[in-house]
Amino acid sequence: MFMVPVMKIVTRIVSLALMSALLTACDNPSAMTEEQVELVRPVKLAIAESNAAEMKRVFPATIEASKHSALAFRVSGQLRELPVKAGAEVKEGDVLAQLDQADFKNTLADRQARYDLAKIQFAQIESLIKKKYASQTKLDEARANLKAAAAALAVAKDNVSYTQLIAPFDGVIGRVDIENFQSVQAQTPIIELQDTHEIDIKFSVPEGLLTQLKPDLDAKSVCANVTFESQSDASFTACYKKHDSVPDSVTRTYRVVFSMDRPLAFTVLPGMSVNIELDLTDVLQGQPSDHAVSVPLAAVFEQASQTYVWRVNAQMQAEQVAVKTVRIIDEQMLVSGLSPGDQVIAAGVAYIQSGQKVRAIKKERGL
To answer: Sorted alphabetically, which keywords does the UniProt record give (predicted)?
Structure first.
């Protein structure tokens, strides 16, 4: 009958002991130190890359004929001969198309007869005036008629020659926009002739690059390597020719043109795709330091008129490092003050503090 009171006393003693232990732990923060988790900020990291690698750029480009001409007849008529087709190679002086000459030859014969008559009449009046049987006025009229007849004859001869469309240079027929026996209006282009002895390499560059081009660029002053998609194991040299000063209305990029001799080992036609590798140090103003590296534009920030980046050290702590900007290339910036391989914080730099622990953001699979 003494068991119940004894159990109650034991229970109370154990409860008091546990409460005392908990209160002691709460009054001693050092007891929780090992269980506390230090705050580590997830960040996007980027690697500072060597300047030499960044200055080498590859642009997709397109082949175009260096010289091309849209050919048209200078007179109207009906087409009678069309011996060429697209893709055909022609020589300077070849007949590419010809109109029906019947009406033009008839006109030529008429103008020839009128000229012959005017010439005879002038000779007759010139003879009579020597004998004082004709006036000076008659002689002047005959001379004017002869000159007019000669001019009309010359036009008729030219028009006969204009019934033939002649190749003005060696090249390849790029396009034929008419069928034989159709009627043709004067000055309407019907054939495109392309000179493929020299070809143009045309590609587009963003505004940020074009504004940094050297002002003294001239033809052949800068060269680059060109590779054809169908001949990727061979490269060719193309040199600067010109660039546009007005951007494309849609892409807001600028067209740059390099030129090269047409390769003879394989067929090259306008419209083919190529890649052109260009060393930007050859075309951009200023020479970047050999120690400059490339970092994302978003990694650079200003503070008190000084430019900085957050570099991450081996302990994954953020260090504020002063850098000097050299040049902007697209979304990258060349800076000095870092070494190739340095890790920098590439986003959210306004929220980082010196010495702060960080960790690299890793994408989950499928993201």
So the answer is: Signal, Transport
